[in-house]
């Protein structure tokens, strides 16, 4: 889809799932709000992860004077709010489990908007591969329980939090440790929906290790990591986003999917993308080039191939030109020039596609 249409559809999905009603003169939206262009509706995605930090945006939809407005919490043991509102934005910290009420006050202390929110401590985490999610795979298909990563490569995974089966929202609470020579770090998206991501580099060949995912000194999950040689890849396929309801100008994704002899996924492989035999330029050096975005046009066909070692699978797509991208660049971390041919902007499209994938899965994952 075009990025404006995708943003609009993602916004509608988020509003519907949040149970929002008619327009209000004053609204609150958290960092999971997908209504990028407004006007905003109340869009708070409680319950939140204890220890997480994010922003709340307060907006007036009726041209009210916002001078002196403040955002307050009824219980600082549960939810702490930074002093004042800076250009309508206040930072919040989920301090502990419980329920607190967020209130927007005007300069005279009158309550303009009010919402009860819950903070909970997760009892498990889910780790997901983004490429399959972007191309429409189910949560179960994208779930990662162990990861084989090409030696010298890096893999990035989405991390989601759950408490008694209910998904929690928030970012910034996660810490990770790697054993056996595995390097593990966390990063958070700041574009579209704020999320936490796990980035791992494997141990040297012949060794394996584990990444522990920790919140508040409690290990909530572990991910075994194995370093593999490029030769361990025995099959490469291209996963394509469905075109059933696509319209001209919609931006669609391809994901190059590497598999080993046991039919397990291999991560961290970087591909040379070709359109009708022409190599597409890439500005990535430290992340796997495993995504390709193109603009849908049913009247045009071209062959898009992903080359890795001796493998060169291709997909016939309806479009012209495209952009290479990487699952290793998330949200604003996408920064840096992208190799492009054609008019697609994978920086914006990838951020919006990720946001859309999250919104589409919120209700299903609960």
Estimate what percentage of residues fall within beta strands: 35-45%
Low-confidence regions: 1-23, 35-40, 332-366
Q: If helices are DSSP runs of H or I spanning 4 or more residues, what is the number of helices?
A: 4
Q: How many structural domains can be distinguished in the coordinates?
A: 3
Shape: globular
Number of strands: 27
The percentage helix is 10-25%
- Taking all residues together, what is the mean pLDDT? 80
Distance between the termini: 27 Å
Return Rg in Å: 22 Å
Give the biggest sheet: 10 strands, mixed
Structural class: mainly beta
Quick overview of this protein structure:
The protein has 366 residues and is mainly beta. Helix content is 12%, strand content 41%. The chain is globular and about 70 Å long.
Description:
- The chain is mainly beta.
- Helices cover 12% and strands 41% of the residues.
- Strands 10, 13, 16, 17, 18, 19, 20, 23, 26 and 27 form a 10-stranded mixed beta sheet that branches. Strands 9, 11, 12, 14 and 15 form a 5-stranded antiparallel beta sheet that branches.
- Strand 19 (251-260) and strand 20 (265-267) form a beta hairpin.
- The longest helix is centred in the C-terminal third of the chain and has 20 residues, at 346-365.
- The radius of gyration is 22 Å and the shape is globular.
- Residues 1-23, 35-40 and 332-366 have low confidence and may be disordered.
List keywords for this structure.
3 domains, 4 helices, single chain, disordered N terminus, 12% helix, mainly beta, 366 residues, 5-stranded antiparallel beta sheet, Immunoglobulin-like, disordered C terminus
């Amino acid at each position: 889809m075009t990025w404006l249409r995708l943003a609009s559809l993602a916004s509608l999905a988020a509003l519907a799932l949040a149970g929002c009603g008619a327009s209000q003169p004053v609204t609150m939206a958290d960092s999971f709000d997908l209504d990028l262009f407004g006007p905003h509706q109340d869009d708070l995605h409680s319950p939140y992860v204890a220890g997480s930090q994010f922003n709340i945006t307060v907006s007036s939809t009726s041209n009210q004077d916002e001078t002196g407005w403040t955002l307050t919490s009824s219980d600082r043991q549960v939810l702490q709010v930074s002093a004042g509102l800076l250009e309508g934005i206040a930072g919040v910290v989920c301090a502990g489990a419980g329920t607190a009420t967020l209130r927007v006050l005007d300069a005279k202390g009158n309550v303009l908007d009010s919402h009860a929110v819950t903070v909970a401590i997760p009892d498990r985490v889910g780790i997901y591969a983004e490429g399959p999610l972007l191309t429409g795979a189910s949560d179960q298909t994208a779930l990662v329980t162990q990861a084989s990563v090409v030696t010298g490569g890096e893999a990035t995974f989405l991390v989601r939090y759950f408490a008694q089966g209910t998904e929690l929202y928030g970012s910034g609470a996660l810490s990770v440790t790697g054993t056996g020579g595995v390097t593990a770090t966390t990063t958070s998206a700041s574009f579209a929906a704020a999320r936490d991501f796990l980035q791992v580099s494997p141990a040297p060949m012949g060794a394996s290790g584990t990444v522990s995912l920790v919140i508040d000194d409690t290990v909530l999950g572990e991910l075994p990591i194995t370093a593999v040689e490029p030769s361990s890849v025995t099959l490469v396929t291209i996963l394509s986003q469905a075109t059933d309801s696509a319209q001209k100008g919609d931006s669609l994704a391809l994901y190059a999917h590497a598999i080993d002899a046991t039919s397990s996924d291999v991560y961290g492989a970087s591909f040379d993308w070709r359109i009708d035999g022409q190599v597409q330029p890439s500005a990535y050096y430290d992340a796997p080039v495993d995504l390709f975005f193109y603009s849908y046009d049913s009247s045009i066909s071209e062959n898009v191939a992903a080359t890795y070692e001796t493998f060169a699978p291709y997909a016939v797509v309806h479009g012209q030109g495209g952009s290479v991208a990487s699952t290793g660049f998330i949200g604003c971390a996408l920064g840096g020039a992208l190799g492009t041919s054609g008019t697609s902007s994978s920086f914006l499209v990838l951020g919006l596609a990720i946001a859309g994938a999250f919104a589409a899965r919120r209700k299903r994952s609960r």
